[in-house]
Design goal:
By secondary structure, this protein is of the alpha/beta class. The protein is built from nine helices and 26 strands. The structure holds alpha-L-arabinofuranose.
């Protein structure tokens, strides 16, 4: 039996809604088919966006959406994706399957999608193969409301008013697919390119995202920050608002591509995947420690803008499309990872799961006109209550360690937040074979009762497909009892649980 102690009088940090962000790249069937089917499709749509997908996404309160990549971003030339569709240039998507990209989804379509979702824009610019002028003009096109060549072009293309770009990424993975740069070289380019990401609207400042490390590349974090902070004005706001971090959970590693099946795995691989998910805590802590030296006031957020499970593609699908199923294992990885982000919300202020639809650890999968919600979707739905809440001090004691020697993990992880007088507790039970009891003790409240309790559970390989879309779903959690300031939760094996007290 474990004990969860919650000091509900101690708020540690604020959980920005953007920690629950998503990522959509021109990759496989994410944008095309998954989100955008075009105005003339038989699939019900509004201005080309699938109605079923938008409706499902709205229910999980998507705060921010990153686009157009990924590796695609550093090959993307935005001018090709504006203007009359029949005149838009076609290009080869060299990174992702070598397919033809017809640019029918471009800047205007992206902002239309955001309008329908009610989400903020995180646009990723091209440093790897684009010029400073191209990036600068894109920002002018999107955000300038006065008279200028790019503002006039936007109006001519049908959009009078400028849009709001909340976040702008200055390159993507520039240590790899974004140009194979050294940290010092990229750091200098970052200084230069970000200069021309102009702020045309003082009340709607664009927050700039600097390309951060891959996994545990502390050398990159150190080198980029050192270069950027050398002769940098002391006022950090406006120069760099975020440093990104990318980390994928790949059981078995890269060989040279992931070989592990998304749905066919044993307990050892289950524990390996959990251990790798928990590694996020170390990554965030250690990159955060380097950031602390340059930015002790934590003005710069860490943006984990690519995270999730990466398995072998589903048999028979295009290897370049990264289409994989999503099982209860993914639900646990999501629950564990989001608990880690909540706990580090003083530094982790944005995160984007990769990717939103039909690619890697998606919340939705589509096939023709059919759509299913994945187990990961249901976790995002429960965890939406953490968005914009305050993290409360909490800790678990007496947690049983489980799993084989090399992949030992705690059976349960947690995070706790408070918003509008309601305390949200999320717990994940990684044990594939046993339930675990948790006694919950709140120190600073006496008259609490359970307002809502939900869970997602199932066999470790359980998943939804197009013929059986509700094998895994969110349900009422009956394993909770207690009142006042003491509660008991009996977490089933393989479960992610949400308890709301008020
Ligand atoms: O999400 C798939 C790819 O993973 C992205 O394009 C790239 O940034 C990362 O390597």
């Amino acid at each position: 039996m474990a004990d969860l102690y919650i000091n509900n009088k101690k708020k540690l940090s604020h959980i920005e809604p953007e920690v629950y962000g998503h990522f959509s790249e021109h990759l496989g069937r994410c944008i095309y088919e998954g989100i955008y089917v075009g105005e003339n499709s038989d699939i019900p749509n509004v201005n080309g966006m699938r109605k079923d997908v938008v409706e499902a996404l709205k229910a999980i309160d998507i705060p921010v959406l990153r686009w157009p990549g990924g590796c695609f971003a550093d090959e993307y030339h935005w001018m090709d994706g504006v203007g009359p569709k029949n005149e838009r240039k076609k290009m080869i998507n060299t990174h992702w399957g070598g397919v033809t990209e017809d640019n029918s989804f471009g800047t205007h379509e992206f902002f239309e999608l955001l309008r329908q979702l009610g989400a903020k824009a995180y646009v990723n610019g091209n440093v790897g193969s684009g010029t400073v002028q191209e990036m600068s003009e894109w920002v002018e096109y999107m955000t300038f409301g006065g008279v200028s060549p790019m503002a006039e072009l936007r109006k001519k293309n049908g959009h009078e008013e400028p849009w709001t770009v909340s976040y702008f990424g200055v390159g993507n993975e520039n240590w790899g697919c974004g140009g194979n740069m050294t940290p010092e070289y990229y750091g200098n380019l970052y200084r230069r390119y970000q200069t021309y990401v102009r702020q045309y609207n003082p009340d709607r400042q664009i927050k700039k995202v600097c390309c951060g490390p891959n996994v545990d590349d502390y050398h990159w974090t150190e080198g980029v920050l050192k270069t950027c902070f050398d002769h940098t004005p002391e006022k950090l706001h406006g120069f760099m608002d975020f440093l990104s971090l990318h980390y994928y959970d790949v059981p078995g590693g890269w060989n040279p591509t992931p070989q592990a099946s998304a749905t066919n795995f044993d307990e050892t691989e289950w524990f390996e995947t959990m251990k790798r998910a928990l590694y996020m805590d170390e990554l965030v802590t250690r990159h955060g420690a380097i950031m602390d030296r340059y930015d002790p006031g934590k003005l710069i957020g860490l943006s984990v803008d690519e995270w999730g499970d990466w398995f072998a593609v589903e048999p028979g699908t295009n290897p370049g499309f990264l289409y994989q199923q999503n099982a209860m294992r993914d639900a646990l990885v999501a629950g564990v990872t989001l608990n880690i982000f909540n706990k580090h919300s003083d530094r982790v202020r944005m995160a984007c799961v990769a990717q939103m639809v039909n690619v890697l650890q998606s919340v939705l999968l589509t096939e023709g006109e059919k759509m299913v919600k994945t187990p990961t979707y249901h976790v995002f739905h429960m965890y939406r209550h953490h968005q914009d809440a305050d993290l409360l001090e909490s800790s678990l004691t007496g947690v049983e360690e489980i799993g084989p020697e090399e992949y030992r993990v705690p059976s349960v992880t947690e995070s706790v937040s408070e918003k509008d007088g309601i305390i949200t507790i999320t717990l994940s039970n990684m044990d594939p074979g046993s339930s675990h009891e948790v006694d919950i003790h709140l120190s600073g409240a006496e008259n609490l009762s359970v307002k809502e309790a939900r869970l997602v559970t199932g066999a470790m390989q359980a998943h939804n497909d197009f013929d059986t879309p509700d094998v895994v779903k969110e349900e009422a959690f009956s394993g909770i009892s207690g009142s006042g300031n003491t509660f008991k939760a009996d977490l089933p094996a393989v479960s992610v649980v949400e308890i709301r007290l008020g």
